[in-house]
Amino acid sequence: MAFEGLSTRLQNVFGKLRGKGKLTEDDVNEALREVRLALLEADVNFKVVKDFINRIRERAVGQEVLKSFTPGMVVIDIVNKELTALMGGTQSKLAKSNRPPTVILMAGLQGAGKTTTSGKLARLLQKQNHKPLLVACDIYRPAAIKQLQVVGEQVKVPVFTMGDQVSPVEIAKNGVQYAKDNNLDYVLIDTAGRLHVDEALMEELQNISKEVKPDEVLLVVDAMTGQDAVNVAESFHKQLELTGVVLSKLDGDTRGGAAISVKAVTGCPIKFAALGEKMDALEPFYPDRMASRILGMGDMLTLIEKAQTGIDAEKAKEMEKKLRNAEFTFEDFLDQMEQMKKMGPLDQLLEMLPGMNKVKGMKDLKIDDRQMDRVVAIVKSMTTEEKRRPELLNASRRKRIAAGSGNSIQEVNRLIKQFEDMRKMMKQFSGMMGPKGPKGLKGKLGKGFKFPFG
Amino acid sequence: MSFFKRLKENISRQTEAVTNKFKEGLTKTRDVFVERVEDLILRRKKIDEEFYEELEEILIGADVGVTTVLKLIDELRVEVRKRRIENAEELRPVLSEKLVGLLRGEQDNSLHLNENGLSVILVVGVNGVGKTTSIGKLAHRFKQQGKKVLLAAGDTFRAGAIEQLEIWGERVGVDVIKQQAGSDPAAVMYDAVQAAKSRGVDILLCDTAGRLQNKVNLMEELNKIYRVIQREVPDAPHEVLLVLDATTGQNALNQAKLFGDKTGLTGLVLTKLDGTAKGGIVIAIRQELGLPVKFVGLGEKMDDLEEFNSDQFVHALFAGLIKEEDLAEEA
Q1: CATH, residue A11
Q2: Lateral strand order in the sheet of A282-284
Q3: Taking phi first (over 0 means left), then psi (-120 to 50 degrees means alpha), and beta for anything else, what does residue A437 get?
Q4: Which chain B residue has the Cα nearest residue A248?
Q5: Which residues of chain A make contact with B160, given a CB cutoff of 8 A?
Q6: How is domain B8-106+316-330 classified at the CATH fold level?
Q7: How close B60 gets to chain A, by Cα (Å)?
């Protein structure tokens, strides 16, 4: 698809720049043309792109670069820094009122994900030991109130409703009062989706805002939004004075250029990003990481962070020792799989690797988490004794394991074979690392070593 | 000249009301899109690099898509050289012709339904594009045509989705086949198809849960729904419609491609075109995937869903151009 082509092209251009000892203006211009296309393909608004490119051009053909020994790297650095700055620089936090409750008004177009995001935000606040209240002010869309009630139930947060015959302004006012009476410290007001050009409905929002004086007015923006994101954000900002933006549906394969556009025209920071269907899939937004994503440079930081939270350092050390002594058993293997899973879905992890989109056939490669589940099922069907001493696994035991885990005997055989290969390999490795230094390296590696799944 | 005249005659044969609705819904689109092109032509007398660049930006600003725009600009450059066009004014007819050519397909925009018997229409799309609402509007439309309609509540995932479809069912006056939230959507479809057969229904509209196209498991689930329908009714589903939000940018292409892989799309429904969104991505999708737009959503009311008509779409988009040519002819 066009997407991939562009990202590859961009990396090629950067690659070319990197190798050069001296940069002419033409070199820079060519690179910038590719950057411009990359941004446009990512749905960054064309006006924003124009300003951005001009700013970089100024810096890139100036003193800074010419003096440097590695001008290419400097240009890349400038692009990355400017892009991060464009998206708000540092991460920004949610407001907290001195006199609780803190009132948060959620607004946005139809289908942007306001109700779901409200639920997720409530869950996030709850995890930080706050007591949120959800207020249902969408009296227009069929079953919208019901949706918020179900969401509230899922995250165990109270939902304040007055049916769909009362004006939203009234509901909001009473909702805040209810929070005060019941000692709830955050009020999340879910409103109906509306077009920014719908005067009557925009006025209603203004009236709600006047009535409850929100500490935060968050605009929920679909990450897939195209060039129009600017008009929407500008218009909402003018009429409501937004304090922040939440980017929804960022777990799709969109580049999310809307993020840049929105920040650039309203100046409001993006506070959160929604990254999944589950209720706890709302994360603080990091501009620098988004910059990498838009330019197709991967998101190593998030990956590293996920690895740090997902993997227990103690366990990792222990594992390493076991590997060296070739004591690695199926029990350890199971442990390892669990830790991998904690880091999140495999395909999401792979996407964060830089250059992953350059790997041929990556798009067609389906990484199925179920495949991992199967492997886990096989291992779990072994007895403790078998897990510790894989050599016990004779034909009849294998047959039992296959039946017990719902797999074919071939699959069980394959896993055991791969596991043994891995063990052998580890032994060789540890031999090489030993005091006698590397030996017998040639020919041993690359002998078709495969990970036991996939 | 005659091109626009033909176009106009074509449209005058269609009802005035529909054209007006189209024009109204697309006002914003037209304002930004056409008038900026006009402005550009009037302001810039000469055709130079900057002219091309600005034109490029206008088109990209309408979400037409970078690849399509670059192709168009290249074609324009060739024409300009061939015809030795020097000032912008002369480029206008060439440009209009090219733009209209992009928008206007020879494709059949009508629905392919089973005339004597059950027709199944499967509606798919990402989250929040307006699938359920579009189904409600479609149901209303078919009901008005005197058809017997049944709805299948296949969104068993999102909170309140079944209730939302039920309310639409009540409004329109058609039955809804449903199971509990969280149940297997393919099972719901199976039930719905059986019910549709035994009740002698003309049209079965199947709602599905919104899903992002890169979620492998969810897309497989959708594929299963598709297979169940295929197995139970020969030739079904007769139509698989991808609902697209007009505000969506380049990602819509990915959506069309991946949903197409799993469910064999037959057409698009473009919703929320009454905002400031340009819906230009339709052009990109038509160019790159050849999928026709079958319906457009132009408002919040029950009857705010219109059959897509490329003539009317072009007319609404280029109203400014057509008017001026009329004046020129009169003079």
Answers
A1: 1.20.120.140
A2: A159-160, A132-137, A186-191, A102-108, A216-222, A244-248, A270-274, A282-284
A3: left
A4: B127
A5: 143-150
A6: Four Helix Bundle (Hemerythrin (Met), subunit A) (1.20.120)
A7: 7
Verify that A232 and A337 share a domain, yes or no.
no
Per-residue CA distances from B271 to B130, B277, B293, B306, B312 (Å):
7, 10, 11, 10, 16
Domain with A367, as residue range(s), is 311-445
Nearest CA in chain B to A196: B275
- Both tokens of residue B326? 């009329």
Domain-ending residue, one of A33, A52, A86: A86
Q: Which of A297, A327, A361 is the last residue before a domain boundary?
A: A297
Is A134:A148 a contact under the CB 8 Å cutoff?
A: yes
Q: Do A163 and A80 share a structural domain?
A: no
Place of tokens 């959708």: B222
Burial class (CB in 10 A: 0-12, 13-18, 19+), A234: middle
Decide whether B8-106+316-330 matches B119-309 in CATH topology. Answer: no
ipTM for this model: 0.76
Regarding whether A192 and A250 lie in a shared domain, the answer is yes
Residues A147 and A253 in one domain: yes
A168 in a domain, yes or no? yes
Residue A154 shares a structural domain with residue A183: yes
| Interface with B, mutate which of A228, A278, A372 (most B CBs under 10 A) | A228
Residue A40 and residue B164: Cβ atoms within 8 Å?
A: no
Length of chain A: 454
CB neighbour list of residue A12: distance below 8 Å, 6 or more residues apart: none
Cβ atoms of A247 and A274 within 8 Å: the answer is yes
Nearest CA of chain B to the CA of A65: how many Å? 27
Instruction: Confirm whether A267 is domain-assigned.
Output: yes
Instruction: Give, for all 454 residues of chain A, the pLDDT tens digit.
Output: 333 444 566 667 767 766 666 667 777 787 788 788 878 888 888 888 888 888 888 877 765 565 665 666 677 677 777 877 777 766 677 888 888 889 999 999 988 889 999 999 999 999 889 999 999 999 988 888 989 999 999 999 999 999 888 899 999 999 999 999 999 999 999 999 888 888 888 999 999 999 999 999 999 999 888 888 888 898 999 998 899 999 898 887 777 788 788 888 888 888 898 888 888 888 888 877 777 666 655 555 555 555 555 556 666 666 666 666 667 788 877 777 776 666 665 555 555 555 444 444 444 445 566 677 788 888 888 888 888 888 888 888 999 988 888 888 888 888 888 888 777 766 665 555 444 433 333 333 333 334 444 3
Q: Is residue A95 part of a domain?
A: no
Asked if residue A213 and residue A147 are part of one domain, the reply reads yes
Report the distance separating Cα A156 and Cα A149, nearest Å.
10
Q: Are A192 and A285 in the same domain?
A: yes
Fold of B119-309: Rossmann fold (3.40.50)
Is the pTM above the cut of 0.80?
no
Q: Is A72 contained in some domain? A: yes
Domain boundaries, chain B: 8-106+316-330, 119-309
How many residues would you count in chain B?
331
Name the residue among A144, A232, A366 with its Cβ closest to that of B160.
A144
B127 contact residues in A (CB cutoff 8 A): 111, 113, 249
CA distance B298 to A300: 43
- Cis, peptide link before residue B237, omega less than 30° from 0: yes
Q: Within this chain, do residues A319 and A434 fall inside the same structural domain, yes or no?
A: yes
